[in-house]
Amino acid sequence: MANKTGAVAIELLDYRTCDAKKKLNSMKHMIVQKEKKIEEIKSQYREITETIEFGNATYAGTNKEGKMLRNLENRLDKARLKYHEAEHIKKTYEQIKEKLQDEHLTYEHNLDLLEKQVKATQSEVSELQQMYNNAIMAKDMAQQELRFQEEHVANERRRREMELTNMRKIAEGKKLASDKSDHQQGRESLPSVDAQSESIQGDSVGVVERIQGTGGIGITEEQQMKIAKYEESFQIIKEVTGLSDLDQIVKRFESQGETLRNLNNLRDKAEEQCHELRKQRDALRQEFEELKYSGETELESVNQVMRQHEEEAQAEAERRVKCQQNVEDANRLLIECKTGVDHIYDKLSFLSVKAAKSTEHFIEDGKEVEQNIDNSDIPEMLKICNNKLDELMDSLNDVNIEEQLNLIEQEEFHTTNTKK
Fold first, then answer.
1. What single-letter DSSP state applies at residue 224?
2. DSSP string computed for 58-124
């Protein structure tokens, strides 16, 4: 400058001044560009931080989306459990249905067998009832015949005794009369007296006949008719019983009492047997009716249960479709979250973080080597992005922007002078 003239010095100073202004403007422009870049980086950092916080909150379930995601996962697990339970119930009901169908095939056959048994029992009961009625009729007839015979024998015995008593009285009177006439008739009347004495010792019927044959004194026609009736009845009894002795006939009628008791015992046994058979018949009828109505009721209940289970299976299928839709929505949301995290991770891939726990790289031979991170490990990727952003902010905090700008200006100024 000292060797130069004033005009040249002024021109040189003007040139330097212009050059310095240009450098100043350039530096200001660079400062503005750097500030814009810093603001962009800060805005990106805030966005990434918010995204990471959102992802952490979503993963932890503290925000709305995280709660929704947890609810969707819980609903998905519940839907899977209900689906497996519905499948198990469906298999169980299918087994029940197959068993009921098998029973339905043999139900009519079993019902026919029961009907045949009931009909056979009813026919047997009717036969036993007829036998019982016949036995009662035979018993009644035998009792009636026995009472009639007993009354007839008793009446005949009383009448015979009365007739014998009358005959004895007549014979005694006649004997007295014959004793009185002995003195008058003498020996002529003796044979007739002997004949009368023999008739008293003989059979009562023979005495009556002899008295009638001799025109017996004191016997009326009514008594003769009674005697004839008694003789006829006695003859009929002999023919019926096949006995001729009066004692045997009496024993025969006494034995009829034992027969009556045996018949009464048989009647009681038959009544008990008929009573038991009636109970069995009523029980079989009741069992038949119960089986008939219970079979219809059971079939209706089975059909109702089948319809109910089909409705439940349809409802479970609809619920399964809804759960599958919810799962698909949750999967889409997870895919979107994963895509966002992958985008942030790719944006920060130019940064490297020193080795630390839960980071993606480690130091080997003094160089940083990145580990292979699984793309499905979203929380780990979020942690790595967070660590990168923290180091980026720390590195930016250590930089003095004004000092860096001054250094840049000086470098540009020296570079320009050197070129000139």
1. H
2. HHHT-SHHHHHHHHHHHHHHHHHHHHHHHHHHHHHHHHHHHHHHHHHHHHHHHHHHHHHHHHHHHHH
pTM above 0.85, yes or no: no
CA 292 to chain centre: 19
Taking the C-alpha atoms of residue 202 and residue 191, their distance in angstroms, rounded to an integer, is 17
Asked whether 216 and 170 are in contact (CB, 8 A), the reply is yes
In angstroms, what CA-CA distances link 95 with 30, 88, 277, 317?
83, 11, 42, 19
Task: Tell me the mean pLDDT in the region 149-177.
Answer: 81
In one-letter notation, the amino acid at residue 345 is: Y
- Residues facing 361 on adjacent strands: 370
Assign residue 366 a region (left: φ > 0; alpha: ψ between -120 and 50; beta: otherwise).
Answer: left
pLDDT digit string, tens, across residues 185-217: 554 444 443 444 444 344 444 444 444 444 444
Q: Which residues pair with 231 in a beta bridge?
A: none
pLDDT at 379 over 80: no
Per-residue pLDDT, 401 = 66
pLDDT digits (tens, 9 = 90+) for 247-286: 777 777 777 777 778 878 888 888 888 888 888 888 888 8
Is the alpha carbon torsion for 12, 17, 22, 23 positive or negative?
A: positive
d(CA 361, CA 381): 12
Per-residue DSSP letter, 5: -
Instruction: Name the H helices within 181-189.
Output: 182-185
Give the pLDDT of residue 295: 67
Domain-wise residue ranges, the chain: 22-49+348-420, 83-291
Task: Give the Cα separation of 337 and 414 in Å (integer).
Answer: 51
State the Cα–Cα distance between residues 349 and 388, nearest whole angstrom. Answer: 9
Running DSSP on this structure, what letter comes out for residue 351?
Answer: -
Query: What span, in angstroms and rounded, lies between the C-alpha atoms of 371 and 358?
Result: 11
